[in-house]
Design brief:
The structure is a single chain. By secondary structure, this protein is α+β, with helices and mostly antiparallel strands. The two termini are 22 Å apart. The strands form five sheets. It has a six-stranded mixed sheet with strand order 2-1-6-3-4-5, sandwiched between helices. A four-stranded mixed sheet has the order 8-7-12-9. It is globular.
Length: 687
């Protein structure tokens, strides 16, 4: 961040925009990106004191969290879909710089899916465009009186009306906006019809396949009548950040020479990490489907199984035949993204992006779908409609499971195909007759792998129509509406659907899902050491070799603690986790501290970065507690703890000792038995 980087505060109700600086003190406290978003929400949605972030970091707020019943401190009971909710969009400290893979942009708000802190991270080039304009953050409140978009350029930010975009999907929205703003450095964030309809897991899209997918931030954008954010970037050739004038006397030319050397060494280390570099570069994360299937932990048919026959058809190695162009994000040496085209069949000529492996699991094996043409079409349709692929696939798999168990039935009988022009009508009321309503699929045969029915449900979800209106609430709320034991098959944590890797037989994953602060999630924790660490390093870092034994609970708390802090730092720097963590597998923050020192001139050690990560995680935890989260929310569905996997490599395995692992995690975090950060921890972190 440069010393003249600007925080834009936008009130869509009053149509006013105010500016404030992003200071060096703020960088040292939270870095940027995820860290800034978390701190801002912590201060401005929780605290009765509405003092500015730019003020000194007061410790006076800690007393409001002295017991777990601090829910009343959410300002005026702000609802996630109310105008008062705050939507924050911030590039990381290193986003858009010479740092390799420095593409990431972080978006946060109170989540309509979990009711807790929602956050999502997006790549591509839009983060770098924000940084080229010295935008530190855009903070959005209120609701526009008519559908609008934000225009961000070197003149500042303006609010533009766009009623003509109402009802348009994300692709058409971007096409129409590019007609008005054709500059090649223009990048766009937009929502589709799902966001306009405030579907609880609506996403925010950038291009064809970059999604801020999790926790429903597209719905928050829709609740503000905000269709898009368009950034007209400028060229930037500086390798380093001019903020050094305030924080270092190092000669800029000397530091740029140093930056080139640090960047070169980092890129070479990534490219030499074989075979992972080649796997990600050639096939993307989609190459991880076959290994997970072989491990018996590929979520299949709503977790009835841990493996699927013919799964090789939807693995990245097979999907390579659809790739017609590889591409990457800002300054990425991996280039794991790819554009695909379906060359034949019903979807001949359809183009889109190659899906990531979480998407392939949740919309593929979890729904019993192994047809690659249909998978590529449906995953891209989700992006077009603007719905999160992980939650969407989970919701459809949940419905298919209930249909298979007789909890949902098709009273109309035998209608297995979806007529795109006039799908069967379905009563939309969720009133007193909801039990009767919830039993009928409205003419849809929800059989496993039925791509036509999946498409029908996706359109219904995005439009909040028919059975889709119930599923659009997420599996937790949908099970509460449907009843009849359906909650036993609604797989989520804190209301957010889990990503599709079965936690049975992988105790570190079980703890990850349980304690993840944004819900059923892998990415915000990123417990790669559980699968990758060599024995000596595991013993040194976590105190026991059992930390990397997937079947035991010992050492998992220490492992997850470290991963949480590292993940928070990476998201606050604006770096992509694929090269930093998936490929290199390094969780010591040494590379990141060297990049930060050379690019910004900020003398910051890896130990200081760990402390910043810990501070961010504790503020996120305090926010969630204030929103009503308790120890009872740090768990997993009973199904995983009582039902062993029926077959596969880890046949018979269950999640065991979960409550003990959670308590171990609380202890090593310095939290009390209810999961509340203690005064000692808050004092040490300066919260």
């Amino acid at each position: 961040m440069q010393p003249d980087s600007t925080i834009f505060n936008i009130d869509l109700t009053s149509q006013t925009i105010s500016l404030s600086p992003f200071s060096i003190k703020d960088i040292r406290y939270v870095l940027g990106g995820f860290g800034f978003n978390t701190y801002y929400l912590y201060r401005h949605l929780l605290s009765p004191n509405k003092s500015s972030l730019i003020d000194s970091h007061s410790l006076s707020e800690k007393s409001i969290f002295s017991d777990i019943n601090s829910k009343q401190y959410i300002s005026d009971g702000i609802s996630p879909l109310s105008p008062e909710n705050i939507l924050i969009i911030s590039p990381g400290l290193l986003t858009g710089t010479a740092a390799p893979a420095s593409s990431r942009l972080h978006i946060s708000a109170r989540s309509p899916l979990s009711g807790l802190m929602g956050s999502s991270n997006i790549g591509g080039h839009i983060g770098a465009r924000f940084k080229s304009l010295n935008v530190a953050s855009i903070i959005i409140t209120g609701r526009a009186s008519s559908l609008s978009y934000l225009l961000v350029n070197d003149q500042g930010i303006s609010i533009q009306r766009c009623e003509y975009l109402k009802g348009m999907d994300t692709r058409v929205t971007e096409q129409e906006l590019r007609k008005k703003h054709p500059d090649k450095l223009t990048e766009i964030l937009s929502i589709g019809i799902a966001g306009e309809n405030m579907v609880r897991y609506a996403c925010i899209m950038h291009g064809k396949d970059h999604a801020a997918g999790r926790t429903g931030l597209g719905a928050v954008m829709g609740s503000k009548n905000l269709k898009a954010i368009l950034v007209e970037g400028v060229k930037s050739s500086t390798l380093t950040d001019s903020s050094t004038a305030d924080i270092s006397t190092t000669d800029i030319a000397t530091r740029e020479h140093s930056t080139k050397a640090v960047v070169k060494e980092y890129v070479e280390s990534i490219r030499s990490s074989q075979p992972l570099f080649e796997d990600f570069s050639k096939w993307g994360s989609a190459a991880h489907i076959l290994p997970l299937n072989g491990a018996g932990q590929l979520g299949t048919r709503n977790y009835r199984q841990g493996w699927m026959a013919h799964v090789e058809d939807i693995d990245g190695r097979n999907l390579k035949q659809y790739v017609h162009k590889k591409r990457g994000c800002h300054r990425c040496p991996v280039n794991c993204k790819a554009e695909i085209i379906i060359a034949a069949g019903e979807h001949q000529g359809f183009t889109g992006g190659r899906p990531e492996y979480e998407t392939i699991i949740n919309m593929g094996s979890l729904c019993g779908l192994s047809d690659p043409d249909e998978l590529l079409y449906l995953t891209n349709l989700a992006n077009i409609l603007g719905i999160d692929t992980i939650s969407t696939g989970s919701a459809i798999a949940f419905a298919m499971d209930l249909f298979d168990r007789g909890i949902l039935i098709n009273r109309n009988g035998g209608c297995s195909l979806y007529d795109r022009e006039s799908f069967p009508a379905y009563k939309e009321s969720l009133g007193s007759d909801r039990e009767e309503l919830a039993l009928d699929t409205g003419g849809l045969e929800l059989t496993w792998g039925n791509a036509k029915v999946m498409e029908a449900l996706m359109v219904q979800i995005a439009n909040q129509e028919g059975l889709g209106k119930i599923l659009s609430q997420g599996v937790k709320r949908a099970s509460e509406i449907i009843g009849r034991g359906s909650e036993n098959f609604a797989f989520h944590s804190k209301g957010v659907e889990i990503y599709g890797g079965d936690p049975r037989g992988a105790q570190a994953m079980a703890l990850t899902y349980a304690i993840s602060l944004r819900g059923g999630d892998f990415t915000s924790v990123y417990p790669v050491p559980a699968f990758r660490y060599p024995a000596e390093q595991a013993k040194e870092d976590f105190g026991t070799l059992e930390s990397i034994n997937p079947l035991t609970t010992e050492g998992k708390a220490a492992l997850i603690r470290k991963c949480l802090f590292v993940s928070a730092v990476i998201d606050s720097l604006g770096l992509c986790k694929v090269p930093a963590l998936s490929i290199l597998g390094k969780f010591d923050l040494e590379n990141e501290s060297r990049l930060t020192r050379s690019i910004t001139g900020l003398d910051m050690s890896s130990e200081e970065m760990f402390t910043i990560g810990e501070r961010i995680i504790n503020m996120e935890k305090l926010f969630n507690i204030a929103c009503g989260a308790t120890v009872q929310h740090d768990t997993l569905p009973q199904f995983f703890q009582s039902e062993g996997l029926p077959d596969g490599a880890v046949k018979g395995e269950k999640v065991h000792g979960l409550s003990e692992m959670v308590q171990d995690f609380y202890s090593i975090m310095g939290w009390d038995k209810n999961g509340v950060p203690t005064e000692l921890v808050m004092d040490r972190l300066g919260i």
